[in-house]
Amino acid sequence: MKTILVRPVAGNRSRAIVQVGPLPLPAALGRSGRTSRKREGDGATPIAAMPLLHGFLRGDRLCAPASGLSLRRIRPSMLWCDAPSHPSYNRLVRAPFRPSHEEMQRADELYDICLVLDWNVTSRRRHCGSAIFFHLARPGYEPTAGCIAVSRRDMLRILPHLRRGTTVRVL
């Protein structure tokens, strides 16, 4: 799979259709909808073409699914820095870590499968958004903090077709 399209749903800025080949899948977007001017904490999903880099998996909750994408098992010490002034901004860090961060091993299931999109990762700019992931959706496809989220069932269906460099294009 080379490109996955993410099209907004008319009348609901935090919902989308993820098009994987001929397969349309419901998805959640950021609580603020989409933006071409992504800023840290704005709750918006960037309008951009973002290659998949790698992923994370809660190996204590599910067996490693088939995928051409590298999936790393999440450990309790794994955090993601979202502090724009820190040198590790938008990077995986290890606990203990005092600056602002997200826990990768969440109590809910959102990051049981969590794919890292290349938004502000390989070419980083302070305050331009961090932790933009393709992960599992909450029940009812509640809005995300800026990520793209699909159901566990749908993620497991598409994972075998994903590779490093598969582009997720938010329209």
UniProtKB/TrEMBL annotation:
The keyword Transferase applies. It comes from Shinella oryzae. Belongs to the YkuD family. InterPro entries: LD_TPept_cat_dom, Transpep_catalytic_dom. The keyword Cell wall biogenesis/degradation applies. Pathway: Cell wall biogenesis; peptidoglycan biosynthesis. Keywords: Cell shape, Cell wall biogenesis/degradation, Peptidoglycan synthesis, Transferase. This is L,D-TPase catalytic domain-containing protein. Residues 4-171 form the L,D-TPase catalytic domain. It comes from the Bacteria. The active site is at residues 135, 147. It holds the Pfam family YkuD.
